[in-house]
């Protein structure tokens, strides 16, 4: 908008008010006539009208608030270190400018927001509140606060990360994104809102224009100008707000409680997310927004139930510039037809949206996390909480997930049914004879377990029998026909749960596992060790589903029961030790994990009854624990022992072999043996695909590892393609918040940094990783150390020394409790700090950090790629200090390394 005096503003406001009284499709023609050839005035008015096109209601208030800001930046060309370039937006509190650094320190564009002139004390307070809220937020999907200050006349301003992108709805339509891709973007937006809620901040104005998507497809949540800071510890994180403050809102996206001026809670943002999801899916607002007066719109929001999204997609609606978007356009914008779109939205997606849009806040999703869980459930064909959980509904979901293998497994179901029927008859005849029941139960269990294991893709190859079987039918027969044989019923439910676990259906596996544990606890109340196997199996499913604390507690309970029973089964004890050791390794508790796994090997060495598969798994898991401690050469020794043991066992466990080759490839690459690593990883990728298919998270992990080795071999384009493909599979298979997805973001960041030299893009990936780790991992998990060190190194390369020191300090603080003192990431941080202080000219500090790294560094082959650069950097510092004796000693050690290699 061009600047001008009071008369100009009065004319502008009057014509604008007249235009907004007309239907949307008549406004542009009216303005052309009213402006009488004044092109500058017409351009200003069209900009105002289009900015407010989402909502007619409440626009006069927006214009009135903006009135004092028309000349807000007149005469100003610079604020702090920033030069104003051009106006890019208007708001109720001020003007937003595109600005750039003007102090020659470095080049950077920012979005600079200035409070409008003439604002009262409450407006100044609100602006400063927004600035503080932004300072408290650090999330890859929230535009960051970079700077702030005041103008010469005392008006506050803030500089934010500049996002050049499209509103999320426009981005999706322009790229014709399908429903799954739209839902993936929506989940990223939810993560940003979730981050704000964790810091007791409600956004209160979530709408498409406040969510911009950049050219890389990353959404950013903007404009916390009317956000509310909640009182920590208040009921449901709520506080009372004044009537005026509560009604600060965008009417078309406001919740009923906002419209009524009632208490605002996190449920308010959930409602606005529901509006956003409604638009993304159907292309419409839930309410007849286009021609409603403010009163009509408020009545609709508070009293009328909106139509389901699936029923709205066949309706035409006004579009920009007076055109009309018909139903076919809505379908095309989603890469489909209207009929298919309506069918896709009907059911779960309708229910998810309608639950988020419930009038009563306490009947909506209880949190953003719960809303995200339902969206992820839909994307993976799982049951959603927004729909009645009937047996038929769950069965339909199961059949949809497992349609490909049903025909091949029908024979398994018939055998199970016949077997269960036969033994049910036999048990009925002899139910009063406990000895007979035990004998028959064991026979039935052993045989049926064999059948169920045949459907387990991690125990047999899919070419031998389809892993997708009608296990649900088997479950039904077990429940109905084995009521009088609880031992058989409990065992079969437990094994059935393990089969579902292997197929990635953790929700069903957990439900079956809980049922099995309940039965065992009742039947074997006097012998807790009998229930240990079922508890360990349930714990494994819980761990895979991310519920690690409950899993660890169950493992502890099972292990305690087995140790307390002198007659406990060796197989159950060794299996539980192995599984718990693996979980502890994933949690970063390497010493505890190693102790449990070595106990399994001790059982094998003393001739205890440990299965061959468990003994091999323990060797593999010890190898991965040692690798977690950066002892890669030792780790490979254990994996080679496991490989030899597989050859002795025989059989066709392709999954286990694939996992073994994956680990071997990773560790060879750590030791710099790229060609050997690639050979292992090629085998792993092939076996993973053959065993699990191309949409499984483990297949994605194998491709990710392969990408790292391709990078070592300078096959960069192939490497980047593998990383991005693996990330896409993992996001679909695991959801965007899984720690393994975070680790993939880390690897992508490392590639962009080291191979492409794209520092800021790399930092953005690292920030994505840290955000995911924050939600799902313990506070001192090693993954966080790796990522913080990487950010520190990038900031060191950019000579942003203070931030680099901060990141390395955070990494070392976490490493104190989560890693051994000689871990390669600890030594790496010491070396980088030494380099940093050397660059700053503080040679004494540099020498202290290099010495600290040297004290801790391992000298063997598992540490070579960290130890050697440390010696080189320190030797160069010694030369600068003129310490010839130290320099010679360091170079002697380098020569010894060369001879050893």
Your description of this structure?
- The chain has 901 residues and is mainly α.
- Helix content is 63%, strand content 6%.
- The chain has 40 helices and 13 strands.
- Strand 5 and strand 6 form a beta hairpin.
- Helix 23 (532-544) runs antiparallel to helix 24 (548-564).
- It is globular.
- The N and C termini lie far apart (68 Å).
- The model is unreliable at 1-6, 53-75, 231-247, 318-324, 388-395, 403-416, 422-441 and 443-469 (pLDDT under 50).
The strand order across the widest sheet is 1-2-3-4-6-5
Helix content: 55-70%
The separation of the N and C termini measures 68 Å
Cα-atom radius of gyration: 32 Å
Name the overall outline. Answer: globular
Largest sheet composition: 6 strands, antiparallel
Overall mean pLDDT stands at 77
User: Low-confidence spans: pLDDT under 50, at least 5 residues?
Assistant: 1-6, 53-75, 231-247, 318-324, 388-395, 403-416, 422-441, 443-469
Total number of strands: 13
Query: What amount of the residues lies in strands?
Result: 5-15%
Classification by helices and strands: mainly alpha
> How many helices?
40
Features:
901 residues; mainly alpha; six-stranded antiparallel sheet; three-stranded antiparallel sheet; 40 helices; 13 strands; globular; disordered N terminus
Topology overview:
Layout: H1 6-20, H2 27-35, H3 39-51, H4 59-66, E1 78-79, E2 82-90, E3 94-101, E4 109-115, H5 121-136, E5 145-150, E6 156-161, E7 166-167, H6 168-174, H7 179-198, E8 201-202, E9 211-213, E10 219-221, E11 228-229, H8 243-246, H9 256-260, H10 266-282, H11 294-303, H12 309-312, E12 317-318, E13 324-325, H13 327-332, H14 338-345, H15 348-356, H16 368-379, H17 391-401, H18 406-429, H19 434-454, H20 471-481, H21 486-502, H22 506-523, H23 532-544, H24 548-564, H25 570-586, H26 590-605, H27 612-628, H28 632-649, H29 654-670, H30 674-692, H31 697-712, H32 716-734, H33 739-754, H34 759-776, H35 782-797, H36 801-818, H37 824-839, H38 843-856, H39 864-881, H40 884-900
Antiparallel strand pairs: 1-2, 2-3, 3-4, 4-6, 5-6, 7-9, 8-11, 9-10, 12-13
Helix pairs in contact: 1-2, 1-3, 2-3, 7-10, 7-16, 10-15, 15-16, 18-19, 18-20, 19-21, 20-21, 21-22, 21-23, 22-23, 23-24, 23-25, 24-25, 25-26, 25-27, 26-27, 27-28, 27-29, 28-29, 29-30, 29-31, 30-31, 31-32, 31-33, 32-33, 33-34, 33-35, 34-35, 35-36, 35-37, 36-37, 37-38, 37-39, 38-39, 39-40
């Amino acid at each position: 908008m061009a600047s001008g005096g009071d008369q100009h503003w009065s004319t502008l406001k009057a014509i604008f008010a007249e235009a907004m009284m007309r239907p949307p499709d008549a406004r542009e023609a009216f303005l052309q006539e009213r402006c009488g050839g004044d092109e500058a005035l017409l351009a200003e008015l069209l900009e105002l009208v289009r900015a407010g096109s989402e909502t007619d209601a409440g626009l006069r208030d927006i214009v009135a608030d903006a009135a004092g800001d028309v000349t807000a930046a007149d005469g100003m060309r610079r604020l702090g270190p920033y030069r104003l370039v051009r106006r890019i937006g208007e708001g109720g509190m001020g003007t937003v400018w595109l600005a750039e650094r003007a102090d020659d320190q470095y080049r950077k564009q920012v979005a600079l927001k200035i409070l409008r002139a003439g604002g009262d004390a409450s407006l100044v307070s609100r602006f400063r509140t927004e600035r503080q809220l932004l300072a408290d937020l650090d999330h890859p999907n929230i535009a960051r606060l970079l700077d702030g200050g005041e103008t010469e006349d005392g008006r506050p301003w803030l500089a934010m990360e500049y996002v050049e992108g499209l509103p999320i709805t426009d981005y999706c339509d322009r790229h014709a994104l399908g429903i799954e891709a739209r839902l993936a973007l929506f989940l990223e937006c939810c993560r940003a809102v979730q981050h704000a809620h964790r810091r007791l901040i409600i956004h209160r104005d979530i709408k498409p224009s406040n969510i911009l998507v950049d050219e890389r497809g990353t959404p950013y949540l903007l404009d916390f100008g009317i956000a509310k800071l909640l009182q920590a510890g208040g009921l449901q994180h709520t506080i009372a707000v004044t009537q005026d403050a509560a009604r600060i809102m965008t009417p078309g996206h406001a919740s009923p409680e906002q419209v009524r001026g009632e208490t605002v809670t996190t449920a308010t943002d959930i409602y606005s997310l529901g509006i956003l999801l409604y638009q993304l899916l159907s292309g419409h607002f839930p309410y007849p927004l286009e021609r409603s007066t403010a009163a009509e719109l408020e009545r609709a929001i508070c009293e009328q139930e909106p139509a389901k999204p699936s029923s709205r997609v066949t309706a035409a609606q006004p579009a920009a510039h007076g055109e009309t978007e018909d139903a076919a356009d809505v379908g095309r914008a989603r890469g489909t037809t209207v009929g298919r779109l309506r069918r896709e939205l009907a059911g779960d997606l309708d229910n998810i949206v309608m639950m988020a849009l419930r009038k009563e806040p306490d009947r909506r999703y209880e949190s953003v996390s719960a809303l995200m869980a339902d969206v992820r459930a839909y994307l993976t064909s799982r049951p959603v909480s927004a729909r009645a959980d009937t047996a038929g509904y769950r069965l339909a979901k199961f059949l949809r997930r497992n349609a490909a293998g049903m025909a091949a497994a029908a024979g398994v179901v018939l055998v199970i049914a016949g077997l269960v029927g036969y033994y049910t008859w036999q048990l009925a005849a002899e139910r009063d004879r406990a000895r007979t029941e035990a004998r028959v139960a064991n026979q039935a269990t052993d045989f049926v377990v064999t059948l169920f294991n045949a459907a387990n893709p991690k125990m047999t190859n899919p070419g031998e029998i389809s892993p997708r079987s009608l296990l649900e039918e088997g479950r039904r027969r077990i429940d109905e026909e084995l009521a009088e044989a609880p031992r058989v019923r409990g065992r079969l439910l437990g094994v059935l749960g393990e089969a579902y676990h292997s197929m990635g259906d953790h929700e069903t596996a957990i439900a079956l596992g809980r049922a099995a544990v309940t039965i065992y606890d009742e039947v074997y109340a006097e012998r807790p060790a009998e229930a240990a196997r079922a508890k360990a199996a349930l714990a494994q499913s819980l761990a895979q589903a991310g519920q690690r604390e409950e899993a660890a507690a169950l493992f502890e309970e099972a292990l305690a029961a087995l140790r307390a029973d002198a007659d406990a089964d060796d197989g159950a004890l060794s299996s539980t030790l192995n599984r718990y050791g693996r979980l502890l390794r994933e949690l970063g508790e390497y010493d505890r994990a190693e102790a449990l796994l070595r106990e399994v090997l001790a059982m094998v060495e003393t001739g205890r009854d440990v299965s061959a598969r468990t003994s091999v798994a323990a060797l593999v898991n010890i190898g991965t624990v040692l690798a977690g401690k950066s002892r890669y050469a030792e780790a490979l020794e254990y994996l080679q022992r496991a490989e030899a043991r597989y050859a002795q066992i025989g059989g066709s466990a392709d999954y286990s072999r694939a996992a073994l080759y994956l680990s071997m490839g990773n560790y060879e690459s750590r030791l710099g043996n790229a060609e050997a690593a690639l050979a292992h990883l090629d085998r792993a990728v092939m076996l993973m695909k053959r065993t699990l298919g191309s949409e499984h998270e483990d297949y994605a992990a194998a491709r990710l590892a392969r990408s790292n080795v391709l990078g070592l071999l300078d096959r960069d384009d192939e490497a980047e393609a593998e990383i991005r493909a693996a990330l896409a599979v993992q996001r679909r298979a695991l959801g965007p918040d899984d720690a393994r997805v975070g680790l993939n973001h880390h690897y992508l960041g490392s590639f962009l940094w080291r191979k492409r030299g794209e520092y800021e893009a790399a930092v953005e990936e690292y920030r994505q990783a840290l955000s995911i780790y924050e939600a799902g991992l313990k506070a001192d998990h090693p993954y966080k150390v790796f990522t913080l060190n990487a950010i520190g190194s990038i900031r060191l390369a950019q000579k942003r020394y203070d931030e680099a020191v901060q990141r390395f300090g955070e990494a070392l603080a976490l490493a104190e409790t989560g890693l051994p003192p000689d871990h390669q990431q600890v030594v790496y941080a010491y070396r980088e700090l030494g380099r940093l202080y050397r660059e700053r000219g503080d040679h004494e500090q540099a020498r202290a950090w290099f010495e600290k790294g040297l004290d801790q560094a391992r000298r063997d082959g598992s540490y070579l790629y960290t130890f050697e650069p440390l010696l080189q950097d320190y030797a160069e510092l010694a030369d600068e200090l003129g310490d010839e004796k130290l320099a010679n000693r360091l170079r002697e050690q380098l020569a010894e390394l060369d001879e050893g290699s």
